[in-house]
DNA sequence: GGAGAGCCGCCGGGATTTCGGCAATTGCCG
DNA sequence: CGGCAATTGCCGAAATCCCGGCGGCTCTCC
């Protein structure tokens, strides 16, 4: 089954790719993702052992290089900047990888710096489709060795789109058989663990991803490193569609929250498919308009709600299933306070304060791992 | 030429449509739009003189009834609520009109209340396409008598899409001649003064509008009456496209900021056009993806910028033309502080305070009606 | 079982914003 | 030119939120 939290028990060997000539300041810190402690020493040993390429990725999947795992350390901003300069000036893909790895860091500062640098990078911002960037389109932590390659991450693999029976696949893929076959031909399926970065905010679009299973966080980062999680795409939805269509840079960063099966469609092929099959164009327009709607509702909620309490109440309510009108609503609380803070654009501190305030006022209750809302209307009154 | 401010010198006779049986509390206040003073007495006289229907509106334009002008008075919320109840329960279109008129009020409180009621109205929220609502799709202040009908509001009328030579029409209307002709056949052109409401947030979508000339504000309102102007559509852009495609409610309120020429396309016809002409689907997808991009950038800026100073600086910079790299940037300051506040989601007070602070620090200067930015980079440094 | 790391709770200080109101200024119109 | 209303400038008080840090708790891993 899918794991709901990011700190899944994926255990991996830390394999570093490292531009040797760059000075290496380093601070040591442990990460949520458990790592091999033997490699947690000062500095990074540039062991040349390559990460084995996961068999589940087809050859044609746009992954020119294998991504290293996220560095669990807090990385010095100066080092990141050095990597950035090296990549910009010397076209060193290793330095680029370093940045991308840091963008996955569990430390907000490191993540923020890396993402800021990535956003301003000319490699990612270049809009030319013909420019052959020697940079990977996707970043993948190494596959956990304890899973078999045939059924990685415990997912049920969907072999092809024609046979896909996902109940929510109607969002995008409800095409007639011919179009579905064409989609199958141009798309590349892959299975990724949690924490893989599909694309980074500000990057020139390569294509879009159909999320067959799993969940993907779409987030954006301010220059100060503040993170806002805008949306979590569920199975059956598509990510990166807007940028793939418009050709403008990706407006968010997409990162798998759970092990996910994805179906990548190259931008050029997608546009061709839209040209050929009108149904694809129509479906695209529908998907975009739906996303647009939720985006504007998010703006409404995030900007116009004066207090964070209202936003938090709204977030809690949005997590709860709407159909159930029982007295109590139970939600498996899979979010940390920090994640909630990222979702409502507040600080972790504020969320903690508000949660305890809600508890004191008996508006919410914690029954072990599940969050209980005794009175939905009371919370709704808070969400002005 | 087009006027840039809402307080255009449209002078009009106040003509009221008024549900007689509703109690009428009234407060008198003057409005930006100059009105015939003779009718500004206590209460509203329900003079039965109907507003002359503007000749420029084709018969087929979806305006079942003529809208009254915006009431310049501050309207008692209780009265608005009474109208709301009357409309909801007794299907009285007059009461509905009253609400719509109040939604155009220049008084923020009145506007807020009316919009809130409109949003929660079942008439507008109903999604059934077959339900025959006896409510107008569009609200039009009466045409100013001093303009000739043939060239209203001083606009150059675009007769048909095929002959349209608008330089920026490529956004949506760059279709092959056959599709353009089909669009011409199903669309209804109209010319509206400033302040006309095209649709209201929460309303079931009727169709979309191609903005041939003029400007349209897209805004959203919180329950407390706080207004956020999300976007100002310029000539050549389309408004309401997303809702028309998805069939979900309009996510914003659209109101003409200047006299505008619009081209209305019914939802059903639009979908048919998309079915028939693949170019229309493609263009729709492109438009939506571009709007989506800007929407996400807006979220980024509005939510992640900590201080209002940063948002204000960003707003000022976004107003200035980017190409010019001269020492000084001159912007005709057509926005009041309140409008700026609505654009960045802050209060008028904060904007005033920040503007004077910027003046003190010599980051901006006022040369009569134009705003001067002596140093662009300094302001950019503020917009973190 | 021990250690480490992440998460949660909390505190005070400081900065920012809003609220409500009031006065001065400006611009428009008669 | 005078009146009116919109706009702007300003003030104090109150509320809210962020910053930075500290310590305890729990969970996992060794």
Task: Give the secondary structure arrangement, pairings included.
The structure is a homodimer of 384-residue chains.
Chain A: H1 77-90, H2 93-103, H3 108-119, H4 122-125, H5 177-186, E1 187-192, E2 197-199, E3 207-213, E4 216-221, E5 227-233, E6 238-239, H6 241-246, E7 253-256, E8 260-266, H7 267-276, H8 278-304, H9 308-319, E9 329-332, H10 337-344, H11 348-360, E10 365-367, E11 370-373, H12 376-382
Antiparallel strand pairs in A: 1-8, 2-7, 3-6, 3-8, 4-5, 4-7, 9-11, 10-11
The structure holds a DNA duplex (30 and 30 nucleotides).
CATH fold label of the largest domain in chain A:
Jelly Rolls
Uncertain stretches of chain A = 1-72, 125-137, 140-151
Number of beta strands of chain A: 11
Shape of chain A: globular
Helix content of chain A: 25-40%
Numbering strands along the chain, what is their spatial order in the largest sheet of chain A?
1-8-3-6
CATH 2nd-level architecture of the largest domain in chain A? Sandwich
* SS element count, helices of chain A: 12
Q: Based on the structure, what is the oligomeric state of the protein chains?
A: homodimer
The major pleated sheet of chain A works out as: 4 strands, antiparallel
Mean pLDDT of chain A, to the nearest integer, reads 69
Q: Which class of the largest domain in chain A in CATH terms?
A: Mainly Beta
Strand content of chain A is 5-15%
Name the CATH superfamily assignment of the largest domain in chain A. Answer: Jelly Rolls
- Structural domain tally of chain A: 2
* Secondary-structure element pattern of chain A, one letter each: HHHHHEEEEEEHEEHHHEHHEEH
Structural class of chain A: alpha+beta
Largest interface: A-B, 43 and 43 residues
* N- to C-terminal distance of chain A: 37 Å
Radius of gyration of chain A: 21 Å
């Amino acid at each position: 089954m899918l794991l709901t939290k990011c700190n899944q028990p994926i255990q991996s060997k830390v394999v570093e790719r490292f531009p040797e000539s760059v000075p290496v300041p380093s601070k040591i810190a442990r990460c949520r993702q458990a790592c091999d402690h033997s490699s947690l020493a000062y500095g990074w040993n540039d062991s040349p052992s390559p990460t084995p390429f996961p068999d589940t990725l087809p050859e044609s999947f746009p992954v020119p290089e294998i991504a290293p795992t996220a560095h669990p350390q807090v990385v010095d901003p100066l080092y990141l900047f050095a990597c950035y300069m090296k990549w910009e000036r010397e076209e060193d893909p290793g330095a680029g990888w370093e940045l991308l790895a840091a963008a996955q860091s569990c430390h907000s500062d490191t993540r923020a710096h890396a993402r800021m640098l990535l956003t301003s990078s000319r490699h990612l911002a270049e809009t030319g489709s013909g420019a052959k960037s020697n940079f990977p389109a996707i970043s993948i932590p190494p596959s956990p060795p304890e899973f078999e390659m045939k059924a990685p991450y415990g997912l049920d693999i969907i072999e092809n789109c024609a046979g896909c029976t996902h109940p929510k696949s109607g969002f995008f893929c409800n095409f007639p058989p011919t179009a579905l076959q064409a989609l199958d031909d141009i798309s590349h399926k892959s299975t990724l663990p949690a924490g893989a970065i599909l694309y980074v905010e500000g990057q020139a679009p390569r294509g879009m991803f159909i999320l067959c299973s799993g969940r993907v966080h779409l987030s954006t980062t301010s220059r100060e490193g503040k993170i806002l999680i805008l949306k979590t795409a569920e199975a059956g939805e598509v990510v990166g569609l807007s940028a793939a269509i418009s050709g403008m840079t990706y407006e968010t960063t997409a990162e798998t929250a759970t092990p996910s099966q994805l179906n990548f469609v190259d931008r050029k092929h997608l546009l061709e498919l839209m040209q050929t099959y009108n149904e694809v164009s129509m479906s695209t327009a529908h998907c975009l308009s739906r996303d647009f709607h939720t985006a504007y509702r998010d703006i409404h909620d995030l900007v116009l709600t004066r207090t964070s309490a209202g936003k938090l109440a709204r977030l809690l309510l949005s997590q709860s299933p709407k159909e159930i009108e029982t007295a109590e609503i139970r939600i498996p609380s899979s979010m940390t306070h920090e994640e909630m803070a990222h979702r409502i654009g507040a600080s972790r501190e504020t969320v903690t304060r508000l949660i305890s305030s809600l508890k004191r006022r008996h508006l919410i209750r914690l029954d072990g791992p599940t969050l209980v809302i005794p009175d939905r209307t009371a919370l709704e009154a808070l969400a002005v």
